[in-house]
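Quick question, first post here. What does this chain look like in 3D?
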Amino acid sequence: MWEHVLPLGNFKTLKSEKGIAVTSADETKRYYYQEGNPVHFLLMFNASTVDGNDRTVDYVREVNRNFGIINLIPSVASKPEKLKVKDLVFNPINFQVIQKVLNETGVPIWIGWGELVKKKTDTLIPSELRDLLTIHKKRLVQIDRGKPRKWFPMHPAYAKINIPAGELKLTPFDVKYVLKYK
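> Answer (accepted):
Ran it through. Tokens below.
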């Protein structure tokens, strides 16, 4: 799949020992990351690292070694607090990558942006993305935490604290929550 996103921008391919990333030429943005032949794609908030060498990806790798990652924003920051205001704007090229992945794969899309989007949903999840998620609503999944209590699906970084990777279960994500975001 990563080869299919290359024509969308002036991207650089970064191969590591574990996976393949599609980044900006200066490696400050990661638009796509893949290991193996993805059986699911995660849609998270932002990339922690360019090459997928971080604790969250390590946890996802324990859940399943064949996955892809796309993010609401492509800016790389080891901690979300390090993002600048200019990074918190939905990127049109990044949206094209998300759109291509959703439209050209049939695998589940694991929603895992957590509460990091709280009070930023107007810019991070614009109507075009909400519409795209609605089209693909039958494939959207999230971490199962029992009875849903919040609108925001759990981020894998928080799941690893309480849920061993072998016990993690995914459950359908109800797109109606995204439509209610303000």
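The radius of gyration is 15 Å.
The CA atoms of residues 130 and 179 lie 7 Å apart.
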